[in-house]
Amino acid sequence: MKLDYDFSIKEVSEAYDGPVGILWEVLMGDHIHVGGENETQRLAEKLEISENTYIIDLCSALGGPARFLAQKYKARIVGVDITETMLKKAEQRSKEAGLTNLIEFRTGNVLDIPAKKNTFDIVWGQDAWCYVTSKSRLIQEAVRVCKSGGKIGFTDWIFGSIPITTQEEADFLFEFMIFPNMESIKGYKNLLDKNGCKILEVEDLQEDFKKHMHLYLDKVHALKETIEKEFGEDLYIIAEAGVNAWTKAADENKVSRGLWIAEKL
Ligand SMILES: C[S@@+](CC[C@H](N)C(=O)[O-])C[C@H]1O[C@@H](n2cnc3c(N)ncnc32)[C@H](O)[C@@H]1O
Question: What separation in Å is there between the alpha carbon of 231 and the centre of ligand 1?
């Protein structure tokens, strides 16, 4: 079965520049990942973030997590994203929160991270690396900018333990999300291992993913009128069908979400 899709960074970025970016914020808030702020805190605790920890957030979007890490821990964060609209909003909101001394945003492709080697204590990512065309190059880049003894900690949407059965289902799931491909628990472990990292923790968050997908589907239904009014009836139909398909696939363990923490040796 074909599970690689020809979505370029330009297509992903155009989508986040338009209604897609706004819709995900409506559903998830400005931490655009499953579980919102609680999940940011959980990852921060696992990574032992504290005052002055120097973090790079790869695919930082609206910068909700960056502001949380700066506000709560006084960590220093560089956010990297390719989408101008996301970066502008992230910068504006961080300025309004008075956090520009701790947060900086850089425009760039995470396949060629705009940062020097061996710079950061923590390389951070939440539910976004699924959009990146080459996970192999991405992990290589993440390891390059991480200090020796530093950590790479991230969550992402992945394949579950049961294979997707039909090409039609795979096409619908990937095309709705604009994912060029996806990794698995083992796939990311292998990539980290291959790039000289020691794996410290891996979690398959399948049950939590199911629970949250149901919550997002309920939210789509509850916000039907708002979504139709702001984005049009067609977008509501697409969003409902897409979130519904992902919820069903999560229930069937065909798609999941995982967490990885590794140390750069
Ligand atoms: C789901 S959002 C990220 C959410 C964010 N990590 C958070 O937790 O709030 C996906 C983001 O990835 C960015 N993105 C996708 N591919 C990228 C790439 N190759 N380089 C940089 N940014 C990318 C998009 O522009 C978008 O803002």
Answer: 21
- pLDDT tens digits, one per residue of 211-220: 999 999 999 9
60 CA → ligand 1 middle, Å:
6
Q: Which CATH class is domain 9-158+178-206+255-264?
A: alpha beta
Assess whether the C-beta atom of 129 lies below 6 angstroms from ligand 1: no
* Spatial separation of the C-alpha atoms in residues 68 and 112, rounded to whole Å: 26
Report pLDDT digits (tens) over 183-207.
999 999 999 999 999 999 999 999 9
Please tell me the distance between residue 129's alpha carbon and the centre of ligand 1 in angstroms.
7
Give nearest CA residue, ligand 1 atom 12.
Answer: 59
Type and span of the H or E element at 59: none
Q: Which atom of ligand 1 is nearest to the CA of 110?
A: 20
The predicted model gives 90-116 an average pLDDT of 98
The band of 148, judged by pLDDT with boundaries at 50, 70 and 90, is very high
> 257: which 2 tokens?
């979400």
Residue 87 Cβ inside 6 Å of ligand 1? The answer reads no
How far apart CA 65 and CA 80 sit, in angstroms, is 12
DSSP per-residue letters across 245-259: HHHHHHHTTSEEEEE
Taking CA atoms only, the protein residue closest to ligand 1 atom 15 is 131
Read off the pTM. Answer: 0.98
pLDDT band (50, 70, 90) for residue 257: very high
With a CB cutoff of 8 Å and minimum separation 6, the contacts of 53 are 47, 73, 75, 76, 121, 122
